Prior knowledge:
Layout: E1 8-14, E2 17-24, E3 29-32, H1 41-52, E4 56-60, H2 72-84, H3 99-114, E5 119-124, H4 130-134, E6 140-146, H5 156-160, H6 166-177, E7 182-187, H7 196-204, E8 208-213, H8 227-241
Parallel strand pairs: 3-4, 3-5, 5-6, 6-7, 7-8
Antiparallel strand pairs: 1-2, 2-4
GO molecular function, one term: hydrolase activity
Region (Disordered): 1-24
Keywords: Hydrolase
Amino acid sequence: MSFPDGWSQGEHTHDGVTHPTYRRGEGPGVIVIHEIPGITPEVATFAQEVVDAGHTVVMPSLFGTDGAPMSAGSTVRALRQVCVSRELTKLRTGETTPVAGWLRSLARELHAELGGPGVGALGMCFTGGFALAMMVDDSVTAPVLCQPSAPFAVSPSRSRDVNLSPGDLDIVKGRCAAGQQVLGIRYRSDPAVGKRFDTLTTELGDAFIRVELDGRGHSTVTAHRSQVAVEAVLAFFAEHLRAPAAG
């Protein structure tokens, strides 16, 4: 399946690792990180909503087949890629996913080009916590965690883990203490998220904004899209990415 028209394909390289990227729009930058199985049509539709709200959106392609719909086959193939990738953590606790360094580099480059207070970062499902890891870099001023689900919540300790090393968590907590906010969105009964929202509330306090939706859905802005969730994301980006008016 071809990727939707209107998106410019490029690539970004950091520390010898290159991933494709897709870009569209004008205005403050936002990096939208796809879920498993990849950049599905639903992910692209959500990214277009962010573009339409007045943002430059960059979507990196980390795994999966770009533009392919979600299916049992595409999910299995993406999981195989994820399981063998050294860039991605699946079960280990107290560790920042290695691909965070690549994503931070992408954020710095986008911020240097576009200027302003910073860029937004949104992850979803398996990549939900990646936006928090990107916040370690000052270029990221609007991190959004949609149903963060890594490490896989197969035990109580993994259910509570936020996919950050202790050092990176300290940096995130310091930024929050200085006024930074983090937006988290989940369906209240989604077991994949585990107890992570409780951990984030404990660690970040009032700086962690919880949006919890009723029901047993999972993909808050894509397959099980909630208008409440989408509006919360767009309002968060508008608040944190627009420069204050002069005077």
